[in-house]
Fold this protein.
Amino acid sequence: MPVLSLIANPADSELDPALADAIVAKVGGELNWLNPGIACDILEPRDPQALEAARDIAQGRKVDINLVPTEDRRKQILVADMDSTMIEQECIDELAAALGLKDQVADITERAMRGELDFGQALDTRVALLKGLERSKIEEIRREAITLTPGGRALVNTMKAYGAYTSLVSGGFTFFADYIAKRIGFDEAIANVLEFDGDRLAGTVAKPIVDKNTKRERLLALSVERSVDVSRTLAVGDGANDLDMIAIAGFGVALHAKPAVAAAAGLRIDHGDLTALLYLQGYSEDDFVR
C-alpha cells in the first residue's frame, strides 16, 4: 500500500508534529518520522483521497507531500540532470554573463526548459553567442560561480553505499559535468562537448547533442547493463528535456521544476533539497552517508 510522504526543507522547515498529526487525523494511518521536524511517512493511509486531503491541510506551508509506492522503494539506479538540479545555476547562462549576454541567453534557456523551443536548436543558438570566450574564463566561472544544490552529496553517497549506480546526464557541458560529477561522487557523467579554437570557444558543440532522448536511453541502457528493472530506477530533473526519463523511471521526480514539468511528473519536490529524494525512498536521517 502506498505511503504518504511529508518532507520539508531542512534549512527552513515548516513541518511540525501538529501538522503531521492533523493530516493523520484526516487520512488515517500510522505516523513514522524519518527525521523529526523534517520528514515523515504516514503508513497505510485509509482515505482514498489522502494525497489531495493532505495537500489541502498543508496549504500555504512549504511542505512537499507525495504518495509513494512502497514496493522496491529503495532504487538501484539514479539518473540526474545537472543544471538547476544537482547545481543551482544554468552553466550556459553563467558563461553568457561573462560576455554581457546573460539576459538574452537566459531567456532562450528558460523557453527551452519550458519546452517551448527545440532543445538542440536552442543549444546551438546559445553556444554560437559564446564564441571567443577564453578557456581560462570558463575555468574561473566553474570554480567561482557554480554552487552545488544542498543535499546532493548525501543523495549520491547514500544511494551508492546501499548499492546503487549513479549517473549524471546533462544537456549542459562536459567542461562542467565531469568536474561536478567528481565533486559530488557520481559514477559517471554524460554531457555535451564544447568545441574550442585554440584557447577560445569556437561557438559550436559536438554532435550528436545530449538531449531528452539521450537521458531516456541512458536510463534504459543502465537498467539492462546492471540487470535492474526500470521500476527500481530514479530520475530527477527540472526541465522539459527531463520529462522522458522522468516518465519511465520507477520514481520520476520533478525538483523545483517548471510548472508543466512538475504537473507531469509522478513525484514533485518544490521546497526540499536533494535529501528529499532519500526520504522519498524511505531512508531515515540515520541512514544518510554524508
In short: The chain has a mean pLDDT of 97. The chain has twelve helices and twelve strands.
